[in-house]
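Section 3.1: Structural characterization of target chains.
Under the original work plan, the team committed to producing a structural model for every single-chain target entering the pipeline before any wet-lab resources were allocated. The record below documents one such target. The sequence was received from the expression subgroup and is listed exactly as submitted; it comprises 270 residues.
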Amino acid sequence: MEVTITISDPDDPRVADYRQLNDQAARRAIEGDEYFLAEGWITIERVIDSGHEFRSVLLSPSRVNRFLPYLAVPQLLGVPVLVAEAEVMSRIVGFDLPRGVLVSAFRQPLTTVQSLAKSSRRLIVLEALNDNENVGAIARAARAFGIDGIILSPTCTDPYYRRTVRVSMGEILHMRVARATPGEWPAVLEILHAAGFESWAMTPAADADDLWSVTVPERLAIMLGAEGPGLTDLALSVATRRIRIPISRDVDSLNVGHAAAITFAAIARP
C-alpha cells in the first residue's frame, strides 16, 4: 500500500501549509492561530511528545526511508505524508531546503497569565523580542533549567514561528506560553506580584543588583528585553528589582539568549 503522496505540482493545494517560509509576515497571516511548521528530525520528536496534533508531513525523496518508522507512531496514523523532489519543494517553500523534512501541526491554545501565576514557581517575561532565534534559544534554556512558562508582551514575535521552533530544538512546544494584550501591558505583571512573585528586570545598568549577591525568592519572574534597547522604562518601573550580570568592563553587554541562560542557571543552583 502506498504510504506517501507524490507532489509534482508546486501549486498543489495539499502543500498550501508550506508556502512562503521565509516571509514571517506572510506566514503569520497564513498560519494564524491554527497551525505551525517544524523542520528536522528532533523537532518531529518534540511535536510527538508534546502532544501537538499533526496536519501533514512534507519530505524530499531521500528522507522517506528514515521517516517510515514514524508511521507506526499513533500520532501519525492517517497523516498525509507528501513527497516532493528538490526543485518542486524549493518552488513550494520559496528557497532551497537541504534538510527536506517539514511537518505541519495544529497549535494548542495559549494559556493565561492568571493560570501561570497560580501554577508556577519560575517564569520568563519577554518584552518586544523580535528575533526568532533569540526566543528559540531562551525557550531551550528555559526547559533545561526548569522554567515553568513564558509571558510575552503584545509585540513579541510569534513563539511558534518555524525558526523559533527549530532553534529551541522543539522545546518551545513543551512550554506553557501566555501573551498579554496591549491594554494589559505591563500592568499584567501585577497579577504575578499579587500571587507572590518577585519580578527581576535584567539590565546592564551599573546601579542594578549583582546577580551573584542576591537571594533567589520562592517565586520569581525573570524579565528580558529585546537586543539593543532592552526593557522599556515602563517595564523597569513595574519590576520589583533590577538585576545585572557582572561582566568585563571591556564588553558592553551580552546577547539576550546568553544572558537568559546564565540567569536561569544561577537561580536553579542548589
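Residues 132-144 form the longest helix (13 residues).
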